Amino acid sequence: MDILIDFDGTVVTHDFPAVGKDIGSVPVLKRLVDNGHRLILFTMRSDVENPISNDVDIVSIPGQYLTEAVNWFKDNGIVLYGIQVNPEQHTWTTSPKAYGQLIIDDTSLGIPLRFDAEISNRLYVCWESVAKILERMKLI
């Protein structure tokens, strides 16, 4: 299965533009890869030189934000099949939307979330609950 994985609030806490804190995603993501699933990083992060926005909630500071996320996966020994796109989809579509059979994202309806003020001031994915769901689905 090709699985799209968000980054901020999903594999780490929301601390953009910095890389967030550990929330327990590493062992579950490694189990997915070990069970033959292919992970595709699917994030709003990008490497940007001149961000411009009038929205006060948008970080308008240049940075290698996507590269930092990709490096997080490398540093944690998690193999990515794709970054922002399924490497095979260009053979049958020109759509910019990445193709996969499952999306794990903190903004997905029904994804189990948790809150711990000592770790983050925002909700983030509860990986213990995600692991149980994936086990019930026989994906890990």
Any overview of this molecule?
The chain is of the alpha/beta class. It has a single domain (2-136), classed as 3-Layer(aba) Sandwich (Rossmann fold), CATH 3.40.50. The protein is built from three helices and eight strands. The model has no long low-confidence stretch (mean pLDDT 96).
Order of adjacent strands in the largest pleated sheet: 5-2-1-6
C-alpha-based Rg, rounded: 15 Å
Structural class: alpha/beta
Indicate the CATH architecture: 3-Layer(aba) Sandwich
Query: What string gives the helices and strands in order?
Result: EHEEEHEEEEH
**End-to-end C-alpha gap:** 11 Å
Oligomerization state of this entry?
Answer: single chain
Looking at CATH, the homologous superfamily is HAD superfamily/HAD-like
CATH class: Alpha Beta
Please report the number of helical segments: 3
Percent strand: 15-25%
- Please mark out the parts with pLDDT under 50 across 5 or more consecutive residues, or reply none: none
Shape: globular
Number of strands: 8
Summarize the structure.
The chain is 22% helix and 15% strand.
Tags for this model:
two-stranded antiparallel ribbon, alpha/beta, 15% strand, Rossmann fold, 140 residues, 4-stranded parallel β-sheet, globular
